[in-house]
Amino acid sequence: MASRDSLADLLARCALHDRRAFEMLYQQAAPTLYGLLLKLTRDRELAADLLQEGFARVWQRAGDYRPQLGQPLAWLGSIVRHLAIDRLRRGEQRQRTELDDSGWALVADDGPGPEDRLHAEHGDAALARCLEMLDPEPRRAVFLAYYEGLTHDLIARRLDRPLGTVKAWVRRSLQRLKTCLGET
Fold first, then answer.
1. DSSP letters spanning 118-177
2. What tens digit of pLDDT does each residue of 101-146 get?
3. What percent of the chain clears pLDDT 90, i.e. is strictly above it?
4. What pTM does this model have?
5. Read out DSSP for 50-108?
6. What is the CATH number of domain 123-183?
């Protein structure tokens, strides 16, 4: 897995103008955001343009993100979604020519899609194997922190465990994952 940083951490680092964090944020979030834009616009070029414009806004406004108000991906998605809606309302979408089946066959990409490439790049299989090595409760705490974006305090409440225990579980689990993924 190329990056183990959470989107919230990456956004916080982007607010400090950390270019490496911005690259990692782009690598992790761009495929999902591009898919969202593609659904909204139904235009690959326009979606790519809006994604680029959206990430420029993210770079400028990363300091505005507040983790307590929502998930990082939802915040990122709202930025690109609003850009798409604004662009579509202004009628600035490109003129598209309709292709027949043979035309689509010529432009179709038979390779993996953005989400498939992201998963392949990040080694889902290795991560899944390493996660299975964790004890059930600490593994659940890690999932709640990194897949649902919950704070340590919310995790402690949800699991009905002391805050210190949850923090220790997450910290030790991340150390174990780092070691495990470093060995693969």
1. HHHHTTHHHHHHHHHTS-HHHHHHHHHHHTS---HHHHHHHHT--HHHHHHHHHHHHHHH
2. 666 565 555 666 665 555 555 566 777 788 889 999 999 998 888 7
3. 40
4. 0.48
5. HHHHHHHHHHHHGGG--GGGS-HHHHHHHHHHHHHHHHHHTT-PPP-----HHHHHHH-
6. 1.10.10.10
Which token pair is 114? 């953005």
- Biggest alpha carbon–alpha carbon distance for the chain: 61
Considering only the top CATH level, what class is 7-94+114-120?
mainly alpha
Determine the Cα–Cα distance for residues 103 and 33; give it in Å rounded to an integer: 27
SS3 label, residue 4? coil
Domains of the chain, by residue range, sit at 7-94+114-120, 123-183
